[in-house]
Design brief:
By secondary structure, the chain is α/β, with parallel strands linked by helices. It is built from 6 helices and 11 strands. Strands 3-4-2-1-5-6-7-11-8 form a 9-stranded mixed beta sheet, sandwiched between helices. β5, α3 and β6 form a beta-alpha-beta unit. The structure holds manganese (II) ion.
Amino acid sequence: MNILITNDDGIHAPGIIALKNHLSQIANVLVVAPDTERSAVGHAITLSDPLRVSEIEKDGEFFGFAVNGTPADCVKLGLRCLATEPVDLVASGINLGPNTATNIIYSGTVSAAAEAVIMGFPGLAISLTSFDIPEFEYAGLLARQLARKIIDNGLPEGTLLNVNVPPVKPEEIKGIVITRQGKGRFEEFFDKRVDPNNRTYYWLAGKRMNIDYEDDVDEVVIRQNKVSITPIRYDLTDVSMLNELSQWNIIP
Ligand code: MN
């Protein structure tokens, strides 16, 4: 079994070290990850600059390849150029911070798994919904079990699994729920500031909007201290509107 591992927090993030430790117990693993943090870059790819790869060592051993690109770049390059064996799964994470509801679209972590799926490989994204409680052990064990189940059972073409672990200690986790993506997003504002040279700059900030309440929605399940697992597809077509739109009679 061969697993390609990536993330968006960068190759030196503790989450990817934990994911490698866990998955290397059931598979040959290859780490290909951004050289610095690339959170919230979504599905961006690099076209205007060359991609450079460097070998990273940890504790005197080869750890993986660092790439000066995005998570999606890492998956493309990993699958096309760096992997020497056929890859059975692409695993992305373990991210620090939630990847739920509308915010999935901005996520580098989920986009890496989506890139795998687009290229025809199974994809798994896994995130901690806490920035403060780095409980990588539970998430790592979960990733290990899910990796095995994905490889045994397969995933439908075009589908990845997006996993979020609630922000509590493992013994306080109340279960695992298969969920839908919620509609929640951030209530955003720009903090307007002035730099030492008297020039104005803006910094995007915000807080989560709680607008999801159904018991099968990712954000709700996390609030109930349960693990959320959502099957995600990247066909963005609104099938329910196809008929109506065809009757608009669009003629320039
Ligand atoms: Mn991240």
